[in-house]
Amino acid sequence: MLISLKTQFYVFVICMFGSEVYGVCRRTKCVDSETELSVHPSYTSLLRLADLSNDSFKGKNILDSSRHLSYTLPMMSKSNEPKTLQEAIVYFANPDNCILYLVARRWPDGVTCPTCGSDNVGFIASRRVWQCRTRHSQAQFSVKVGTIFEDSPIGLDKWLCAMWMLSNCKNGISSWEIHRALNITQKSAWFMLHRIRLALQDDHSAKLSGSVEVDETFIGGKARNMHRSVRARRIKGTGGSGKVAVMGLLERHGEVRATVVPNVRRQALHSEVNNRVEQGATVYSDALRSYDRLEEEYTHHVINHAEKYVDGHIHTNGIENFWSLLKRGLNGTYVSVEPFHLFRYLDEQVFRFNNRKANDSERFHFAVSRIFGKRLTYAELIGKEDKKQSH
Ligand SMILES: [Zn+2]
Q: What is the distance in A from the centroid of ligand 1 to the CA of 24?
């Protein structure tokens, strides 16, 4: 066979270097880049999707360059990305597809080292990790590093399917369902779901404006269903005592915010409204006395539920609708939620509600776009490490 000059050059480059990165590449047998590419089986799909035309080589070995891979990845992966749960299961069953999908979103301009930020990195295809060529510790990194998946032994195929299920379900997905569906332990599933909820958490920096409905609710077991000893311990008064107060704010035809509040007294509710609603907005509330004096900063309309529920456009039915969805998930799926973890379940329902107009694949893409730069360890989750996660 006539070996072209270009091929000879690749062979020369490959033989020159002996580091681990290049060692892997040595196992790749470049027969002739112009006609045929015989590679290690694990590279095949990555190489195929990365479109190894002659132009993309430009005198380098493709496996040593993240740039060529990542420049071509977004185009290649978005054309066949999944639209339904069934397609997602099939697509993410291939570990290379999982990497392609995440790389396209995390590093659209080329893979960079999460430790030092350098773009001088090489892909070790046999182990599906990158090697940073700058000398420092943790120079090898996978796509999981610096995301909610970091340090998880569970494969990306299961992670991404769990994300699809949680971001697109109606009333929540319990850890027992994930345990059975993905064949992982219930404890792992519970930890996994909480990490996904952290990803779904929004910083809610944008304030609500226009017409905003505000309301509060209490989450917690009904006293009549409790064992006598539990009831004696928890219920020390009437109304919302022994339960967790949650405040909700809904911009009509817009986004919702829901937060755990220490109580439903005026100061707590007013500071929540001030933090989340732009001045001059129109605020609708029920007749709870704690909302008195909101009219000093807002146009405040009150609907007295003892008389009627709707008076023209004065009502709080939008936020009541959100409570209904939230409680359907908490009562029907999660059943037993510790007050300490309640804000995570709020984050989950708020994410689905705020993206209610998107379709399943769009909602999943939003969820995936939020996994980067976040981390939740088990110790933090169960409260053994004091790191603030709540908003
Ligand atoms: Zn580095």
A: 19
Q: Give, as residue ranges, everything with CB less than 5 Å from ion ligand 1.
A: 113, 115-116, 118, 132, 134
Q: How far is ligand 1, taken at its centre, from the CA of residue 372, in Å?
A: 17
Element spanning 140, H or E: strand 140-141
- Res. 316: pLDDT tops 80: yes
Q: What superfamily would CATH give domain 211-337?
A: Ribonuclease H-like superfamily/Ribonuclease H (3.30.420.10)
Distance from residue 112's CA to the centre of ligand 1 (Å)? 8
| pLDDT, average across residues 316-342 | 88
pLDDT tens figures, 148-194 = 999 999 999 999 999 999 999 989 999 999 999 999 999 999 999 99
Please give the model's pTM, rounded to 2 decimal places: 0.75
Q: How many angstroms is it from 143 CA to the middle of ligand 1?
A: 14
**Whole-angstrom distance, CA of residue 233 vs CA of residue 244:** 15
Which pLDDT does position 329 carry in this prediction? 87
First to last CA, the chain: 66
Q: Compute, in angstroms, the gap from residue 122 CA to the centroid of ligand 1.
A: 11
- Read off the tokens for 74: 């977004």
**How far away, in angstroms, is 134 Cα from ligand 1 center?**
5
User: Which residue reads 């290049």 in tokens?
Assistant: 22
Percent of the chain with pLDDT over 90: 52
**pLDDT for 306 beyond 80:** yes
Q: Which residue spans of the chain are classified as CATH 3.30.420.10?
A: 211-337
Looking at residue 2, the DSSP 8-state letter turns out to be P
Q: What are the φ and ψ backbone dihedral angles of 53, each rounded to 5 degrees?
A: -80, 165
Helix (H) or strand (E) holding 251: strand 244-251
| Cα 304 to Cα 319: distance, rounded to the nearest angstrom | 15
pLDDT of residue 4: 56
